[in-house]
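Exam revision sheet. Question 4 asks you to relate a sequence to its structure. Input first:
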Amino acid sequence: MRIHHVTPHFLPDRGGVESHVLRLSEFLVARGHEVVVHTSARSQTGASLPETDRFDGITVRRYQPVLRLGYYLTTFHPDFSGAEVVHLHGYGLLANDWSARRANRLGVPVVYTLHHGVARAEPTALARAERTIYDRLVGRKTLSLASGIITANDADRRWLETRGIPGVRIRVIPTGLEADAFEAGVPARARDALGLGRYVLYVGRLQKEKSVDTLLRAFATLPPGGVSLVLAGPDGGEGARLRALAASLGIQARVRFLGEVDEATKRDLLAGCEVLVLPSFYEAQGIAILEAWAQGRPVIASRVGGVRELVEDGRDGLLVPWGDVQALAGRLRQILGDPNLGTALGDAGVTKARERYAWSRLAPEVEAVYESLIRPAPAQAGNA
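Answer key, structure tokens:
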């Protein structure tokens, strides 16, 4: 098959969507498919990137943005010549809205992976108004053009069905973990390099919807000494505010801002942490939770979105209400004061990650979606 992906950013940019597209594309190339990734010629840092590139057999075509007003409000016009399937990544992205209409005019089936989800509640009145306008004027039409829609959770599936999307078009397929996520990290390597002892870890972008400020406030209630807080991930616009908050809380000496780290370092950090905390306002799935589980570590997360379907509270992780500083502080004390609990939660998590969330299991399900659109099942003899 000739499969064309559309994603707002790709390598060398890194993030959840970028990693998903890379891992899926690598699987498809290994299976003998031709894979093209269409993306922006401007990186998230604003740097210009070459128009064409190759990564491990994946063809990358980059386009100068026709409109560039941030991650969501950026569009470019891909060339789908030769495509048998167009796979869009990320709901609410103008590049995908244009691409769905272009592919539809060409008669090419569209698969649409939502990633950030559609069932999410927006955090402010303005965001809710913008979302309502987008859904009504653009988003629902784009969804209706998709022959197949892939989402990470059942809440999205229900949202889609109540808005008229036939259930037969919807597949719940979470983002998976590649085999290297299960390679054992080396805790001593991270601790020695950073001069760390015991530490609580956050992995992800420093952006508003991740609610890292809640984690800082909860951490500030812990007794000083003995435990640090490590934040690993690129600045999504909140870095300066979070550093100022740490200073105002008097914990700046106990908080380490590492910025973006490579995969090997991330595994080392995960393997050595006391607990991974994901305090987000919303997560369609929560890939960082799976990455922590792959290293056998416990997690604390907000009871939101797809996390409620992923984590079994008290069995393989601990859940708290979003934004509840005291509840999060209490869970941190519980984990830090009971190493046996952390071990038990981490052991249950790694078992679940291996059995349900390996890419080797999930990627073939995506491939099957493509095949069902290109090579529909033959009609039953009785229905001919």
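Marking note for examiners. The mean pLDDT is 92.
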